[in-house]
Write a structure and sequence with these properties.
This protein is α/β, with parallel strands linked by helices. The chain has 15 helices and 20 strands.
Length: about 500
Amino acid sequence: MSATTPALPTRVRHLIVGAGFAGVGAAIKLAEIGEDDFLVVEKGNDVGGTWRDNTYPGAACDVPSQLYSFSFARNDWSRSFSAQPEIFAYLQRVAAESGTLDRFVFDTAVTEAAWDDTAGEWVVDTTAGQVRATNLITGSGGLSEPKLPDIDGIDGFDGEIFHSARWNHDIDLTGKRVAVIGTGASAIQIVPQVQKVAAHLDVYQRTAPWILPRHDRTYSTIERLALKHVPGLQRAYRSAIYFGRETYVPGFTRFPQLTAPAKRLAESNIRRGITDPELRAQVTPDFQIGCKRILISNEYYPALDADNTDLVTDRITKITPGAVVTEDGTEREIDVLIVATGFHTTDQPIAHHIRGRDGRSLAEHWSETGMASYKGTCIAGFPNLFQLVGPNTGLGHSSMVFVIESQLAYIIDAVRTQRQAGWPAVEPRPEVQDAWNADLQRRMQSTVWSAGGCASWYLDDHGRNTTLWPRTTISLRRLLANFDSDKYVITERTAR
């Protein structure tokens, strides 16, 4: 796609950053209301975001396919939980069929976006030049920038080393001694694939996750035909999955005793996948289920139980040119080091590149209080900035595509209101934003994420959960249904 992308214009009404689910959705929804003066800039060479970049063996979604897709763009899914290639192809198709790809510019990263208060617009510097925009819509996502571990000597490792999100497909792991650092969502998909081909595999676990069985299956031909052609059937599948997932929320947010059946299922998954009692004990978490992200896999525990795999729970102290050394003094020689240590979620990289009315970056604002916004979408002091997948919009139970669509409804209504009222700029009132976040943090105190006895990537350096939404997604969609202009500061028009 990048070969046919247009040159960068000098000014647009709407500039969208990122071309994953959020960016593609924003482009489609703006076009639907006749707001055709927009541009999408993407640092990668294609649409897809997370699903373009994460190509590691076994990469797949842990949300059912029927729910992890746009409600307005149906797809003939091949299975109940889709793998990375199928989701990537889906996004490519949706973008191509939307008629908006002529306004996507690839291989273009934003280096700085600064609000010009005099002109009433954003001045955005990119690797392809400068563009000015009335509205800035960021869809760069919370899982876009890999986080590398801070381990002594890692830069001096002589073998092959790469992050799970930057998989090196030129490296053949067959017969190699491989180490995987991390036991999160990516790691539990990678480990079974590596175990099948490696001569030996060391898995370094800091914290054991709770893992439920993955109830995945291939759709039969008859089922696929029915889903494609029977009116309302796919919508019914999607609704059943959605409301089933919503039943998890009370256990996460108010009544932890409701998670007991899930815990028993996870414990059964351990017993079924591992025969060694000592190893079973090592992989059994000591915190309440749901406190950290619940994972799903049928293959991870058997891979750990295999003869060519060792689970290492001792802390890593350093990495030498050819080995990993743990605090007990053991030195384990390896050929390849795979780091599956997650992403910058509570310190979003794009926040360092966006400067508001006072000249300070979003990251500087958030360094004092932690990530905070109004309705996860707009931020005081940053006029006409709309953030998709912003603070406290993450989920521990359902589909982020549902959240993105909910935010898009809010943003589109804001854009429509701006246009009809002739407002040059809007931003939430500081006291409104403060009250919103105070309520979020108050609600968060009773959740399993705050009181479940674990430390997770949901928490920032202040110990605040600025990542997850502590209520149902039904309530989130209701709160984002309409743009509440009475909660905003409306900037008067200024002469250019």
